[in-house]
Amino acid sequence: MSKPKSQLDRAIHFAIDQAERVGDPLLLPLPLKIVYLVQGAQGVIDNGGLHFFFGHDWHGQPPYAVFVDAYRAIGAVSEADALASAVASFPFADPHKHECQRREFIEQFLIDKDRTRHRPDSPFEIYDICGSEAVWRQLSAYVAAHAESFPP
User: Fold this and answer.
1) What residue spans of the chain are helical by DSSP H?
2) N or C: which end of the chain has fewer CB within 10 A?
């Protein structure tokens, strides 16, 4: 017998389904957009760190500020600040639009051949929010506070 889905799991699946339906997640109603952005960003970060988050373009190349704002909206202020600081570390404007430049910048901090470890002074180590359980707790609380936006 499978474990019943939590309120957060149901909200995440609903937000993803709605984003696929509308085509642009930034057009979702605010609570769905927040859930979609935070779960997507934190899921990628938890799987590979900030360099994974920045390693590829996000669909539609949204400005990174939308992710920072989504973290702030759920109360994950320290994680939002860390993400904003990592974004600010790029030495060029609009890093969300420049995948190749981002990758080149990230690569200068790599210290091993398998391309997974960064120097300790790397903004992708200093500001990393990988594995932040607080984000998931705060996202769950956000969903509970906006339960009317999600199916039961």
Assistant:
1) 7-22, 30-48, 50-55, 65-73, 77-88, 99-107, 123-126, 133-145
2) N
* Residue 111, phi then psi, degrees to nearest 5: -125, 5
72-91: pLDDT as tens digits: 999 999 999 999 999 999 99
Give pTM, 2 decimals: 0.92
- pLDDT tens per residue, range 106-151: 988 887 766 667 788 888 888 889 999 999 999 999 999 999 999 9
1, 121 Cβ separation under 8 angstroms: no
